Structure formats: C-alpha cells, structure tokens
User: What shape does this take?
Amino acid sequence: MTDLILHNYPMSPFSQKMRSMLGYAGLSWQSVTVREFPPRPHLEALAGGYRKIPVAQDGADVFCDSHLIAEEIAARANRPELVLANISPEAQAWVQRVDYELFFPCVFAAGNSTLRRKARESMSVTDLLRFVWDRLNVGRTATTRITGLRDARTIVKAHAADIEARLTQDFLFGATPTHADFATYHGLWMIHVLAESSLLKPYPRLVAWIGRMQAFGDGVSRPLSIADSLALARASTPRAIADNEREDARIGQRVRAAPDDYAQTPTAGVLVGATPTRWIVAREQADVGTVHVHFPRKGFVLVSV
Ligand SMILES: N[C@@H](CCC(=O)N[C@@H](CS)C(=O)NCC(=O)O)C(=O)O
Assistant: This one.
C-alpha cells in the first residue's frame, strides 16, 4: 500500500487532526501543501467543487472530510478506534458536540498577536486580507449557525471545564485515545500550541492531555509537489467497487455531493458507489483522468442532477 497523500496547510486545525492521527498510527505519509483559501486548481481537478481542507488521496481515489480520512488511516494502521462508527454512542455524541459547538469558538478565541504574527509569516498582507474575506463569506453562506464569535472565550472555558472533569484517565474515553480525542484536540491545539495562549492554563489535566496528544507527533511525512499528486492520480486506476458497495437507486446517475453546513460548494459527477456510510462519485478531468471522490454520508447531501 502506498503512503496516503494529505493535501493540507500548516495552520489548518482539521489538517492537524489528521496529522496527529497519522502520528498516533505511526504512519508515514506524503504532504501536499495547499493555500489557505481557494482557488486551489489542483484540488478542483481532484475533488471537484469540495473546498474544505484537508483532502486525502490514494492514487486516483480522493477522500473528503476528516471523518472519512480517519477511516483510511485506521484501515492502514489497524486502528479501529480511529473510526467514528466504532466508538461508543456517548463518544460519538461528544464528537458531534465538539465539531459543532467547540471548533469555531476555538478559532475565534485563538486570535491573538502570536497567531497573527505566525499567519503574517506564512502569508503576504494581500493574502491575509483575501483569507479573512474568504472566511467571512464562508460564514455568511453557512446553513448552520457559526456560533461563538462574541463569547468565544467563555464557550471554550466551559468546554475546557467539562474536559477537565472527564479526564480521570489519560484520554477522554479511557486509557487509550479514540477518534473523540483527535476531534477535540485540533481546536484546542490552535489555542494552546499554535497561538501559545494562556487561556487553557487553569485546566491542568487538560494541559497534560494536550501534551500527551502532542507527543504522538505528526508521523513521518515527505513533501509531494502538486504536479506529482496530479501525475499520481493520472497514472492510477480507482479502487474496484464491490457489488455490495452499490446500495443506492441512483447508481449510474449524475449527482452533486456537498457538505450540509458551511463551504457547501458541490462536487458533480456520476454516483458509482454507495455504502451505508459513504458515497463514491466518479469524475473525469483532463489533468487527472478518472478519479473516484469519496464523501461521508453524515454531514453531506447528495442530489441527482
Ligand atoms: N467537516 C470537515 C471540516 C473541515 C474544515 O472546516 N476545514 C477548514 C480548514 S481547517 C476549512 O476548510 N474551512 C473552509 C475552507 O477552507 O473552505 C472535516 O471534518 O474535514
């Protein structure tokens, strides 16, 4: 099996979720560094309209959303605890809560002079302005309410107190980590590690847990150029789809798949695969030939066109 390719950028929290899982899983991987905001033409070739980061790639198969990428990491490293569907209902509900209630407050609460300096070091002033403008538009067009702009620090502190109380063992749901730890970590990573903020200091068990999560590292990565990632897709054939992976009356039809929350730009193609948890959409593009783009069902909508 070849190393997974992760299209990511250093300051992206959801990319950090994947980098930390790769570190925990002990996997080596290939890193394509992408811009912080669209247009990203090579990702348009690979994933169509889907514009969130990270995106993973294995040859001519492309995986959208961290929940699905986690399944790829879990399968490669035999780490079933990284798959959301494998963890307890209580832990799954926890992930849903931190995804929707903690992530954005963390992003807003992380905004301090250290973060601005780091952003300024990786982007020109013009790009920084374009980035802010882009994210304002993402917020404006979101179908779910993006909470936390006003009370970000208060919301983060309430979650931090919950996490502090839960951490009676080394990880949130026991002595070893699960998907829930990684889903909780990346927002807090932005505050504590990236922005070097003191906001979480009053929560010693939480800070110690961040240290344990950080100690997993990011796995061993080697850089891959955008051109090489496209060439790899072009030279590869998508994975075969089994008969029991065609469980949808729309197989063979033209469809559009899009996130149901924010940055909902759709990917168009032909539905070629469907399992109880994912859809697989085939796309043809001159730069990459035929690629199969995988979407989780949870958090996405699929419509016939
Ligand atoms: N549900 C997605 C969320 C990913 C996400 O929101 N990523 C951020 C960057 S960390 C993003 O892409 N924001 C808007 C954008 O760039 O279009 C996942 O789990 O992968």
Q: What stands out?
A: The chain has a mean pLDDT of 97. Residues 5-80+221-304 form a domain with the Glutaredoxin fold (CATH 3.40.30.110). Strands lie at 5-8, 28-33, 55-58, 61-64, 220-223, 254-259, 267-274, 278-285, 289-296, 300-304.
